[in-house]
Amino acid sequence: MPPASTHPTVRGEAPVEDDDHGGVCTPADRIHRRLDLLDAGLSRHDIDRAIGLGSLVRLRRGVYADAGTCEPRRRAAQHGGTLACVSAATHLGLWVLSPDDPLHVALRPHGHGHPHDDCTCIEHGDHDENDRFRPPPLHGILRQIFLCRGAEEFFVALESALHARKIGRAGLDWLTKNTSAVAREAIALAGRDAESGLESLVRWRLRHLGLTVRTQVRIDTVGRVDLVIGDRLIVEVDGVENHGSAEHRHRDLLRDARAAARGCITLRFDDALVAHDWETVERAIHAHVQRQLHLR
């Protein structure tokens, strides 16, 4: 499959502060080439014995994984590389809009993949690590998301990385130098406050309306709300984990009533509306703004 993205020109030294390769499996769980194991002093007998004991797993000819290595990284190594783009972001625990995407695999420039059983991998030919199986640094993963999935998904993943404090000033500066104007708009807008990808998505999609949108705002007697537009228009976005629970429903109604008592208006949307029927969400918000109901 042709690469989904490449890095024709990369400017500036790569930052080290966001070099976080943890996630589903630990950094100690690695992918190994047979030659590297032999160079490290293991004999062929040692390798075969480790496989027999289950501490090493053969992925394909000459490539092995430590037993604790997660399935996505094993599949990426079978394909000839390491996790990339939204697959790498998911591995790091970041919010992504398309968690069920086919596996994204980072290959070296001019490298080639090794299709395997049921292979639907999406290739990214931009991996410049010395170890082909070492995951890319976070700033590189975010750039892959921008090039492959666009500014919206980039913004969601970036705010997630900021919220988790996985990326700092050096990583943001690198992204600013190595992306386009729309990515730089996303970088300028991004903050650390959002606590879900839905909040980030709503804020990104409302940016063109010229509104003041704050995230995770604390209101007396109500608690923290997802977003506040202007002075008093509350927008709550409920993830799938809040669906169908009578306890959650009662809590939400109580919060909305307390907000109303303080002169606030609450609009509440679920994840399906935000992700798949944005036009309805935007019309509802715009109607309130047109009537200046977001202002006191």
Question: What can you tell me about this protein's structure?
Answer:
- β8 (223-229) and β9 form a beta hairpin.
- α6 (151-163) runs parallel beside α8 (181-189) and α6 packs across α9 (197-205).
- Helices cover 40% and strands 16% of the residues.
- By secondary structure, the chain is α+β, with helices and mostly antiparallel strands.
- The chain folds into two domains: 68-184, no CATH class; 193-290, 3-Layer(aba) Sandwich (Endonuclease, Chain A), CATH 3.40.960.10.
- The protein is elongated, with a radius of gyration of 23 Å.
- It has helices at 34-39, 44-53, 71-79, 85-91, 138-149, 151-163, 169-177, 181-189, 197-205, 246-261, 271-276, 278-290; strands at residues 31-33, 56-60, 63-66, 82-83, 104-106, 122-124, 213-219, 223-229, 233-238, 265-270.
- The chain contains twelve helices and ten strands.
- The strands form three sheets. The protein has a four-stranded mixed beta sheet, sandwiched between helices. A three-stranded antiparallel beta sheet has the order 1-3-2. A three-stranded mixed beta sheet has the order 4-5-6.
- InterPro entries: DUF559, Restrct_endonuc-II-like.
- GO terms for molecular function: endonuclease activity.
- It comes from Microbacterium testaceum (strain StLB037).
Explain briefly what this protein structure is:
40% of the residues lie in helices and 16% in strands. With 296 residues, the chain is α+β, with helices and mostly antiparallel strands. It has 2 domains: 68-184, no CATH class; 193-290, 3-Layer(aba) Sandwich (Endonuclease, Chain A).
